[in-house]
Amino acid sequence: MKRAPIVAIVGPAEADAPTLHAAEDVGAGLAIAGLTLVTGGLGGVMEAASRGARSKLGSTIGILPGEDPDEANGWVELPIATGLGEGRNALLVRLASAVLAIGGGYGTLSEIALALKAGKPVVGLGTWDVHGVEQVSTAEAAVERIVALSSH
Amino acid sequence: MKRAPIVAIVGPAEADAPTLHAAEDVGAGLAIAGLTLVTGGLGGVMEAASRGARSKLGSTIGILPGEDPDEANGWVELPIATGLGEGRNALLVRLASAVLAIGGGYGTLSEIALALKAGKPVVGLGTWDVHGVEQVSTAEAAVERIVALSSH
Amino acid sequence: MKRAPIVAIVGPAEADAPTLHAAEDVGAGLAIAGLTLVTGGLGGVMEAASRGARSKLGSTIGILPGEDPDEANGWVELPIATGLGEGRNALLVRLASAVLAIGGGYGTLSEIALALKAGKPVVGLGTWDVHGVEQVSTAEAAVERIVALSSH
Amino acid sequence: MKRAPIVAIVGPAEADAPTLHAAEDVGAGLAIAGLTLVTGGLGGVMEAASRGARSKLGSTIGILPGEDPDEANGWVELPIATGLGEGRNALLVRLASAVLAIGGGYGTLSEIALALKAGKPVVGLGTWDVHGVEQVSTAEAAVERIVALSSH
To answer: What is the value of pTM for the model shown?
Structure first.
């Protein structure tokens, strides 16, 4: 049995232009590598990453906090409306074999912590400096590390 | 934006041969109609329905109770390991625009009730006799009704 | 270590006067027996049962679907705002050593099914006729059976 | 209507002796102030804080990750077995009007982040240095701040 590896990009719903640009580049790079992308399904980094993935025909999943799948951004192929609120963050990171955090915000910090708690490898790009996160400084490096980590 | 309609087949992990045969036929019929199938991802009716869908190149999602995606049967393309236990039943029915219940069991009864509570149309094939469920007697009739209801 | 046994009363947010009267009587009876009462925390049967329990100095817990503890009725001492929506029903029945269902509604049916699935004893008073539920016809009988079952 | 204010102490299941001692002191201090204590219900900081609270006749709630209430430490009066895994962290912080983090660990970091995301005041004692957390250096100061913040 063969299932496409899933990787997560986590990041805030509001971010500056360079952060969004990086998220889109990483989403595209992961799609080119054949990885399925899961995000929190909303705006900002989540939307930019999903848009990047779709621009390269990648698959995109959105794990939404609310009960309405229409809250997903337009680049999410499969919206999962969990109704769990921020509790959905624990579910999101569990789906992924590796997690990339881009940008800040407390929701993103909770996802970094939950991923590390679950033993998932976490790569950071312009995000919280937490012990255990492998920090990179470019979108290219982020793609390279996530691809390597997801193949385990 | 266009997303594939998702429909759910709910039923027990253990069932007799005619029930499993019906579940497989319905899964195949729904795939032919272009619908994405979501189930609880485990054995019995869930596995038979997923196998039927895959036999016609349909897409299959499994909403698992545990934390391990490998608990999914082999016909599930996308396993979502929720870690919610039976609480995953509420999430499962929320994903679907229509629900087909095949066979019995208390888990299935809870899914029927949660679907009706959420205002989803529910079709029954050899299942609990609950007010609000539209009962049918053949796999063909089940496919026909679910296809009609999912287009709303 | 000794913890007070917890029992659940589940029932709809809207019910007729005799049903509400029965719920209040049962709540009072369970409190006299020294049992802690857990309900869904909202109105109707949930509120009547909680009021009955408080009228006899009993302890009351409310497992709420939303994120706001102030949604609890005034007779709930300890509101647990789960933010899980109807998914809270699975959590509610898990807390109880025995479950009493009073009146109808799909939410109540889901709680009966989830309780039976979890192996909890379920007593019914004017509720769904589900195999495995022990039906009684008076508030007195309901109290007697729940007290007996909770002592296991 | 008057409900006892609930405050949370979050911290790891394993900690050194000074950390556990501080947790016990804080638990006792909060109980003296009449606050109900909620923790994750397991060992380490959670157990020490609960023991401290009980030593002063305080009320203690444990929000457990698993489905078994007997996983709670012996000082938890009311164990809530959520079956949500680490997803229970979001539920835990939502119950509290203020959160005290003692010691480290990724689970604790996720709780700090989820609390800040939910707009709850967070006090830290020997814990992660996260923007938005009010750091204190003694158990006495921690009690004083939590009491002040919970009265809002």
So the answer is: 0.93
